[in-house]
Amino acid sequence: MRLLRALGNDDGGAIIVLAGISLAALMGFVALVTDVGLMEVTRRQLQSGVDGAALAGAWQLPKDSAGAVDMAYDYAARNGLAPSEVTDAHVFRIFQTDEDDAIEVKADRTVNLFFARALGMNTATVGASATAIVAPLKPGDLWPWGVPQSQIGSGYGVMKLGAPDSMTGNFWALDYPPGGGGAAAYRDDIEHGWDDSGDAMPPYDSTEPYSWWVATKTGVIGSTKQATDYLTSMSDTSDPPSCVLADPYHYNPASPPAGFNPRLECWRIGLVPVATDASWEAAKGTSNPVEMIGFAAFYFVDFT
């Protein structure tokens, strides 16, 4: 009985075993957090590199397909990607039937792991890809709103059309040529896109920086509300599920939800001119024009 009692009370071995299991689990969590973080940083670096490479290559399309690929490799190197890491750069056709109008760039990088080696994992491969498309800009796709250049990249544009506090002036609303069309013309530009029947938009020239001065517009809150209600109702009744974001406030372009396929034909999707911050600042309180230097696609979420 004494021997049995002594063995029953001696649980030191059990404690050691449990401590060993806990330590192994802790090391596993450290490996997961540290090495996964390293892989995510690497993925972001790769994504930035292939994004820049694809955009640079697209500047050569559709006229010079070979030059587009060469440019993509060149800018991949400028963005810190080794030649061996760029696994593919090729052009193809999406909208055009006789010329290449898209380029895809892919890159992989082998990451040396640290803590995960204790679990038998020495390396991991991280990949990224980017596609840039060149398509003719149709004026009918343009909404009469401008976005300051500093807002591009944040993923969202909060268009403040009403005057804050006691200030007056314009807040991102545009008055497309010929101008002076009033509330009805502005509302139609939102609902159906601006129609450049007078060829007011300057042609695109890849050898020169794009610049287009457009007048701003004031007093448009009511018209904006009416027109955006129309966009919302048309989207709810006409757009296929592929055009609709269930949770637009948490949309991540790098990993879009399954089935989401945005197109300019969708009622909630349109092109918005990108303006210099300096010209927006100078135009405050007036209807003075602002300088547009490019265009960006946006998904309309809400008007409050």
Can you characterise this structure?
It is a single chain. The chain contains six helices and eight strands, in the order H-H-H-E-E-E-E-E-H-E-H-E-H-E. It is an alpha+beta fold and 304 residues long. The chain has two domains: 2-133, no CATH class; 139-299, no CATH class. Helix 2 (12-58) crosses helix 3 (65-78) and helix 4 (182-192) packs parallel to helix 5. It is globular, with a radius of gyration of 27 Å. Residues 1-8, 11-21 and 160-170 have low confidence and may be disordered.
Map the helices and strands.
Layout: H1 2-9, H2 12-58, H3 65-78, E1 86-92, E2 102-112, E3 123-133, E4 147-148, E5 174-175, H4 182-192, E6 212-216, H5 221-238, E7 269-275, H6 277-283, E8 289-299
Parallel strand pairs: 4-7
Antiparallel strand pairs: 1-2, 2-3, 5-6, 6-8, 7-8
Helix pairs in contact: 2-3, 4-5
